[in-house]
């Protein structure tokens, strides 16, 4: 390079360095002002006094008032983290734990993982010096397995308690049990809804304080007629706002990753058809399984406007600044459990009134806003008042396993804030019993039950891993479980359905979806890790990384594979691998002997087996239900006799997903306790 060039490069560098310093200064100042203007800032001293006075305190405040980010910092500065103790804050959702921890670390001017950190399943960013720790409620429950009094925490804050996730409910029950014995420790329950009474009563009339929030008026608009296709209606509304209203960000509530990604693509496509001057609209997706770097994008400035596509995560868990328009199709994906059939499924249901109100409130945080409800006003009146707690609509096997591991043997007598039905408890006990996790007198079995309780997975997956080590195919099962734990790996855009189906065929195994998933995983792994062609030096490593990322991206695009999901699966894989190594399970591969692997699937998922019926449908053994193989399965329209599956989805028909071909005889051989009972 010439001198001139060199010279210019240096001055540029100096300038940008200065710019960086003054930027950093401006940023700190901006954050300071933001913090001071939060409604909670003016009641700091009063709140600290209340916490000092009461061992159990309930704090209720409007979303966005500063509860989650500020209260832990108040407590830290009031000396609650002396003697190595920490403030632990639980969130029902992973995304919230991560984004909030990052924000608070920035507010404190520290690096994430030092004073402020987070810990969620499969991702821990804390260290010995962490004093403010955000985590999921499920993770704190796991910590209770090792430390029943949660003695590391001077304060435990159960945040977003109104969400009433099954983990929150169990955690509250547990904490109620031990709070008296948690010497000098505090319990705070935070909630966005206005109904603090239920928590207060549960904790024997505990003190509740309310924080006034700021809420600007929000115009609510309804459609005149019901919409046939809410995705399409949402698209129309997005562009109506984009073209007519100009200023202000838009937040759309959708039901899940697939829907969000579909809308993202459709928006991009329509933008391309607009005149140049109208094309600028930054779409940002946010949903639970999104990798954390990408979650943060909702907080980055976009001068020409944001279009945030979110799941119900953005109702209360994550406060996104700048939203002026909310589009609410009125649906949410929820777990649902039928104890009679022992079947859990994800279904899309109408929101409750409380959810609809919460959603529209998101538009009025910084000024007056508008909310477009994509249904007629008369429909609103028909909605349920509030959402049913999750514990009343899920399979309890996981909860029971954890409670048993915590020494709570009498599940029926456990003091739940709201008791699940007896039928659901019985069915879930039965399920655990079938999986071999419980002994005849309903204690955790040794070693299987204890091993299962240690794995942070659905019990049926934990059992599959334990069995796989005996079937010599733990490597394959680890990949399978990781891939089953993420959202769909293939995507099939409506407009390119044929192309995507053809692409998917090159991974397809005639034996079914589980092996297909392994094929995809291994192909991705090859791309991201094959380093045969370069000598191993630091520089090469960098080049290799950049190159393989690029190749990977292109490969994903060409094969209609969701790169996000595959990366997420790789993360999960390495974490579970760590767990099973610690447990001393033998990790071997069955190589090309997929028969062995399929036998292991049959032994693991025997509860979900289905047999072909003369008319072409399948009948699930466990539940007797008539089901069909989902069109996304490689076995769709095949004629196999007997299958195991992992998931049932109900739309107009009942579909089974993630399906593998097995032999009926294997079931009687590998799960005789179930298959003789049945006949
Ligand atoms: P609450 O818990 O009461 O709902 P929070 O403490 O989560 O409120 O949020 C307080 C404010 O901080 C919100 O107005 C939000 O805009 C802002 N905020 C929270 N997280 C972030 C973030 N990661 N980046 C930028 N601003 C944030
Ligand atoms: Mg909050």
UniProtKB/TrEMBL annotation:
Q: Which residues form the Helicase C-terminal domain?
A: 235-407
An annotated GO cellular component of this protein is:
spliceosomal complex
The family database entries (InterPro entries) matched by this protein are listed as: DEAD-box_helicase_OB_fold (IPR011709), DEAD/DEAH_box_helicase_dom (IPR011545), DNA/RNA_helicase_DEAH_CS (IPR002464), HA2_WH (IPR048333), Helicase-assoc_dom (IPR007502), Helicase_ATP-bd (IPR014001), Helicase_C-like (IPR001650), P-loop_NTPase (IPR027417)
The GO molecular function terms of this record are:
ATP binding; double-stranded RNA binding; hydrolase activity; RNA helicase activity
Q: Which reaction does it catalyse?
A: ATP + H2O = ADP + phosphate + H(+)
Query: Which keywords label this protein?
Result: ATP-binding, Helicase, Hydrolase, mRNA processing, mRNA splicing, Nucleotide-binding, Spliceosome
Q: Which domain of life is it from?
A: Eukaryota
The residues covered by the Helicase ATP-binding domain are 48-212
Q: What is this protein called?
A: RNA helicase
Give the species. Linum tenue
């Amino acid at each position: 390079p010439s001198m001139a060039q060199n010279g210019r490069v240096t001055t540029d560098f100096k300038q940008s360095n200065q710019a960086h310093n003054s930027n950093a200064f401006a940023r700190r100042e901006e954050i300071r002002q933001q913090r001071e203007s939060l409604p909670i800032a003016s009641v700091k001293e009063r709140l600290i006094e209340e916490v000092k006075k009461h061992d159990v305190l309930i704090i209720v405040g409007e979303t966005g008032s500063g509860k989650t980010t500020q209260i832990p910092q108040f407590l830290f500065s009031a000396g609650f983290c002396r003697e190595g103790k920490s403030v632990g804050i639980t969130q029902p959702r992973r995304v919230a734990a991560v984004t909030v921890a990052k924000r608070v670390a920035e507010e404190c001017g520290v690096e994430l993982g030092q004073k402020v950190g987070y810990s969620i399943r499969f991702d821990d960013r804390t260290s010995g010096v962490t004093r403010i720790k955000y985590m999921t409620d499920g993770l704190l429950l796991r910590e209770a397995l090792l430390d029943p009094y949660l003695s590391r925490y001077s304060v435990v804050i159960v945040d977003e308690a109104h969400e009433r996730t099954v983990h929150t409910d169990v955690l509250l029950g547990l904490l109620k049990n031990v709070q008296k014995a948690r010497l000098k420790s505090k319990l705070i329950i935070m909630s966005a809804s206005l109904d603090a009474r239920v928590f207060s009563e549960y904790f024997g009339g505990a003190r509740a304080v309310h924080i006034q929030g700021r809420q600007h008026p929000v115009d609510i608009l309804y459609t005149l007629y019901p919409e046939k296709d809410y995705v399409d209606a949402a698209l129309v509304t997005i562009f109506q706002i984009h073209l007519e209203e100009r200023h202000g960000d838009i937040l759309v509530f959708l039901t899940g990753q697939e829907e969000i990604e579909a809308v993202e693509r459709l928006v991009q496509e329509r933008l391309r058809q607009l005149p140049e001057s109208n094309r600028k609209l930054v779409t940002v997706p946010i949903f639970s399984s999104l990798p954390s770097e990408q979650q943060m994008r909702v907080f980055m400035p976009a001068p020409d406007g944001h279009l945030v596509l979110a799941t119900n995560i953005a109702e209360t868990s994550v406060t996104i600044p700048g939203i002026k328009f909310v589009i609410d199709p009125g649906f949410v994906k929820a777990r649902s459990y039928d104890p009679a059939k022992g079947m859990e499924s994800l279904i899309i249901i109408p929101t409750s009134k409380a959810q609809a109100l919460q959603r529209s409130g998101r538009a009025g945080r910084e000024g007056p806003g508008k909310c477009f409800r994509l249904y007629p006003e008369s429909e609103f009146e028909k909605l349920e008042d509030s959402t049913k707690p999750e514990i009343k609509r899920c399979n309890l096997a996981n909860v029971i396993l954890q409670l048993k591991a915590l020494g709570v043997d009498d599940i029926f007598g456990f003091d739940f804030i709201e008791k699940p039905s007896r039928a659901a408890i019985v069915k879930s006990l039965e399920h655990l019993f079938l999986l071999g996790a419980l002994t005849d007198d309903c204690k955790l079995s040794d070693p299987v039950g204890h091993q299962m309780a240690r794995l942070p997975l659905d019990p049926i997956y934990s059992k599959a891993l334990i069995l796989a080590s005996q079937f010599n195919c733990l490597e394959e099962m680890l990949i399978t479980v990781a891939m089953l734990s993420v959202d769909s790996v293939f995507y099939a855009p409506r407009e390119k359905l044929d192309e995507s189906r053809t692409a998917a065929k090159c991974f397809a195994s005639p034996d079914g979806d589980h092996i297909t998933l392994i094929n995809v995983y291994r192909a991705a792994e090859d791309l991201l890790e094959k380093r045969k062609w370069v000598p191993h030096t630091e520089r090469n490593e960098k080049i290799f990384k950049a190159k393989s990322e690029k190749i990977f991206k292109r490969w994903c695009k060409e094969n209609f594979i969701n790169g996000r999901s595959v990366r997420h699966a790789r993360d999960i894989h390495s974490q579970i691998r760590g767990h099973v190594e610690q447990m001393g399970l033998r990790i071997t591969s069955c190589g090309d002997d997929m028969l062995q692997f399929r036998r292991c699937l049959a032994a693991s998922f025997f509860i979900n087996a289905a047999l072909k019926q003369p008319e072409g449908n399948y009948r699930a053994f466990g539940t007797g239900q008539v089901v069909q193989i989902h069109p996304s399965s490689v076995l769709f329209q095949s004629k196999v006799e007997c299958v195991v599956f992992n998931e049932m989805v109900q739309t107009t028909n009942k579909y089974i997903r993630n399906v593998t071909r097995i032999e009926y005889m294997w079931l009687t051989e590998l799960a005789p306790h179930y298959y003789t009972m049945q006949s």
